[in-house]
Amino acid sequence: MSAGELAALALLTGVFVPGVWMASRGAARRRLVGLEFAGVGAVATLMVLAVSWRQDWTLIVALVLALITFPGTLVYTRLLASEP
């Protein structure tokens, strides 16, 4: 296992898993924070793996995920705005 793969594993266990945990429990605003946290963890993990494996074309996956995560959060925030 290379250093990049270990870094990706550390990102998954340190950022992505707690983000998924936060997104699956609690109040709606806390779930939104967990969703963003997990999204950042997923993008960072994919970027580290792409650099570690020296395959530039896989950076497209991280870029698309980053572009999709932001509008999804905006939609979720708009749905929360109607909540008292």
Automatic annotation (TrEMBL):
Q: How does it sit in the membrane?
A: Multi-pass membrane protein
Record key words, sorted: Cell membrane, Membrane, Transmembrane, Transmembrane helix
Q: Specify the taxonomic lineage.
A: Bacteria, Bacillati, Actinomycetota, Actinomycetes, Mycobacteriales
Among its keywords, does the record have Transmembrane?
yes
- By its UniProt entry, which InterPro entries does this protein fall under? MrpF/PhaF-like
Q: Where are the transmembrane segments?
A: 6-23, 35-53, 59-81
Q: Say yes or no: keyword Transmembrane present.
A: yes
Q: Main subcellular localization, coarse class?
A: membrane
Per UniProt, subcellular location reads as: Cell membrane
Species assigned in the record: Mycolicibacter heraklionensis
Q: What is this protein called?
A: Cation:proton antiporter
